[in-house]
Amino acid sequence: MRMNSTIKAPLQTLLAGAVLSLCAAQAAADPAIIKKSLAQILPEYEVDSVHETPVPGLFEVLIGTDVLYVSKDGRYMVQGRMIDLTTKEDLTETSPRLEQARQKEAKERAAAINKLGEEQMIVFAPEGKPTYTVTVFTDIDCGYCRKLHGDMAGYNAEGIKVRYLFYPRAGVGSPSFDKAVSVWCADDRRAALTDAKAGKSVPDKKCANPVKEHLEMGEAMGVSGTPAIVLENGEMIPGYVPPKRLATMLKEKLGG
Asked: For residue 26, is it left (φ>0), alpha (ψ between -120 and 50) or beta?
């Protein structure tokens, strides 16, 4: 599962060498040839589409939800936004292919989370049937993650069920990772997580746990920071959002 919402450092590094390779390739003005050339120099990434743009001789290249622009002869490559200065339209943002890729990515994200199941999460639910459910990738030592958790009563009051997945940004074996494992292995996970988020000490414990799986899933989904809030439709909202604002956003995006 490749879900990449932003161009990450490894792809940027490969692209630096890709420009030189493209120069040698001298691809003709043929999307199939450009796609083949890019596939050869970026073997770790699947080139999803190559299409002409309104700019003569410039092609839009889509890799997941990453957009690149390549000249028809394969010599030049550009990363950035394409703006129509007459209409002021952001042609990168309004690309129908990019929107399709985002929708596909969101569906894959939602399916993966649903497949994981709530038994592999720590859940804070309101009384009665929730109006909305969000899944949050969280790091115990992240300041805004702690702020979000401190507002849990507010989210629940808005009818929002919050399901946590661990995303210790420092990686496997880090203090944050070990704290997540101890929280998962605690007798009362919800209480242990609340204590850990408040900076309190949680007894060290080891047991079978899904923390590494959570981390890998977040990486596959393009999580680059915490908290990362995933909606029921798979759309991902980066960063902390206050309860009332989140409830408004959910109503606008999902209805209800």
From this structure: left
Per-residue pLDDT tens over the stretch 52-101: 899 988 888 888 878 888 888 777 788 888 999 999 998 888 888 888 88
Catalytic residue among 66, 109, 141, 142: 142
> Which of 66, 141, 145, 163 is labelled catalytic?
145
DSSP string, 103-124: HHHHHHHHHHHHHH-GGGSEEE
Q: Pairing between strand 160-166 and 132-138?
A: parallel
Evaluate whether residue 193 is within a structural domain. yes
**Rounded to two decimals, what is the model's pTM?**
0.72
Does 142 qualify as catalytic in the annotation?
A: yes
Kindly state whether residue 181 falls inside one of the protein's structural domains. Answer: yes
Give the range of the structural domain holding residue 37, as residue numbers without chain letter: 9-84
Are 170 and 220 within one domain?
yes
Give the active site residue among 139, 141, 151, 178: 139
Give residues with Cβ within 8 angstroms of 243, minimum separation 6.
Answer: 151, 154, 155, 157, 158, 160
CATH number at residue 208: 3.40.30.10
Same domain assignment for residues 123 and 249: yes
When pLDDT is averaged across residues 15-30 and rounded to a whole number, the result is 48
Q: Is 169 a catalytic residue?
A: yes
Q: How many domains are there within the chain? A: 2
